[in-house]
Amino acid sequence: MNRTINSRIKALLLVSVLATGVGCSDLKETPDFINPDTFYKSATELQLGVNGIYDDLNSGYSGYFYDRYVFECLTGDQIGWEKGPLQYNQGNVGSGDEYIEAYWSISYRSINRANAAIEIADAMKDPTNDALVKRLKGEALFLRAFYYYGLLSYFDNPPLTIKSTKGISELPTNAGGKRAVIDQIYADAKAAAEALPAAYTGADAGRATKWAAKSILMKAQLWDEKWAEAKATAEDIINNSGLQLYENFGYNFDLAHENQGERIFEAQVSAAANASEWDVHSAHFNPEDYPSELGGAGWSWLSATQEFRASYDNKDKRIDATFIESYPTGRLGKINGQYPIVKWSPTADFNLSRFGGIVKTDANPNDPSQMVFGKAWAGKLVELGINYNNTEKNTIYIRLADILLGHSEACNESNTGDKFMGINKVRARAGLAALSGLSQSALRDAIIDEREKEFVFEQVMYPELRRKSKPGGQPDYLGAHINHYITKYKVGRTLKPRDYVLPLPLKEIQGNPNVKQNPVWQ
Q1: Fewer CB within 10 Å, N side or C side of the chain?
Q2: What is Dmax (Cα atoms) for the chain?
Q3: How far apart are CA 499 and CA 425, in angstroms?
Q4: Could you give the CA distance from residue 386 to residue 384 in angstroms, rounded to a whole number?
Q5: What are 28-72's pLDDT values in tens digits?
Q6: What whole-number distance in Å separates Cα of residue 57 and Cα of residue 82?
Q7: What is the 3-state secondary structure (H, E, C) of 248-299?
């Protein structure tokens, strides 16, 4: 996909397809500005509108990407000292929360844009570009399914709307609950898979493919516990896509392999194309003491715990790409003209404070045992060696390992097929021994553990843990994680049913009588 949409087009998109404000149908006079009735007349113009749906995958200071990371802090594996992550670490979540409101707003803005694009495509008369129009409609269908899956992942019962908003009186409902949303994801993902190509080249690289659509379909089937269907969809992707795991795990996150291979769907990021991209990317994840002279931001709001990093097998080949294992520190200033190097250690001092786990200011730079740190910084997200303003790393949302682990889960839960195939492919790439002979419950535990090791820092584990958990039930992976975090770090927090689903935002409840709050939040 083209990396940038210029300011004029962004302004046009805001005028033409946003859900907020008064729609064009409410205007009595004939408008003298560009609007959907006067602009979207060709496939080229429709493509600009579809680009705007992709754009929200990395939008704003409190954006789609960053909000998901804040939500992850509910589990306790990922931590932060900035107000958002800190409050989620402590379980202080409410319907008026700014991160929930931002994520909700971005999601429905994008859904409404997708709705408008689908309607425009259906009505468009551009016979010379019929194939392109059909493909663009497929992209919009995929993106609508993608954003609805994100809402399902956190809120269970978001309102469903599949028509573009024309006026302020058109209010969606969540009367159908998660069932209605899942069924819509099924319909959109299947239709998108029929319309989309298997791959792209050139400037279109990064757009949604048929395999991205089928991936969202499989993920929704897992959520719906449709094990046979999820198994079949996963096998279709595994057997027919031609995709293979990279031998090098780190290729999933570097610049050289963007929009290639097992990277099924990713958001395009380029500070060179959009100077505000850094707002929600590398700057949040740089080590606290990484020298500003070398590009450090000094924000360093987010990391994982020392214990989580220590839980990896020392032979795990994912470690180097997942975590920052060493870096030059600015805590001691320059020594002989160079910033000294610190290395991660499982025995370094660590606590949950802003500076807990960073090398001590009085450390002896000539003593390797003192030049250590305990925080687990995100190697998947940070680009050391460049200024944080210049981030170019794409945000990965779907990759093949997710499909392989989904296949193992579907086989395990349905007691059919080769339940070890998927997880063992993931483990083999990591340099770990194959699993065999596990009971259903033991393999279920192993799949959860493998997901955590494989996908940490990719904003997926809170939804995955809660998807497989029931408050006080068996299994309860989410409750076990939170209780361990509370006990380990003596956090003043109590596990509660509200930890298992986010509340619908207060503004939605107050402004839309057709939407009912999630029962546990009423």
Answers
A1: C
A2: 77
A3: 33
A4: 6
A5: 444 444 455 666 789 999 999 999 999 889 766 668 888 999 999
A6: 22
A7: CHHHHCCCCCCCCCCEEEEECCCCCCCCCHHHHCHHHHCCCCCCHHHCCCCC
CB atoms within 10 A of CB 179: 11
List 327's β-bridge partners, or say none: 342
In the CATH hierarchy, which top-level class contains the domain 43-196+503-521?
mainly alpha
Hey, where are the domains in the chain? 43-196+503-521
* Tens digits of residue pLDDT in 213-250: 999 999 999 999 999 999 999 999 999 999 999 999 99
Which three-class secondary structure string do you get for 141-188? HHHHHHHHHHHHHHHCCCCECCCCCCCCCCCCECCCHHHHHHHHHHHH
CA–CA separation, 196 vs 128, rounded Å? 18
CA 358 to chain centre: 27
8 A C-beta contact, residue 282 and residue 382: yes
Distance of alpha carbon 272 from alpha carbon 88, whole angstroms: 33
Please name the amino acid found at residue 1: M
DSSP type of residue 314: T
Can you tell me the distance from the alpha carbon of 140 to that of 145, in angstroms, rounded to the nearest whole number? 9
Q: Is 408 within 8 Å of 384 (Cβ atoms)?
A: no
pLDDT in tens, 150-166: 999 999 999 999 999 88
Peptide bond into 475 cis (omega under 30): yes
Percent of the chain with pLDDT over 70: 91
Q: CA-CA distance, 6 to 371, in Å (whole number)? A: 46
List the structure tokens of 421.
């195939």
Mention every residue, 6+ apart, whose C-beta is less than 8 A from residue 340: 328, 329, 332, 365, 371
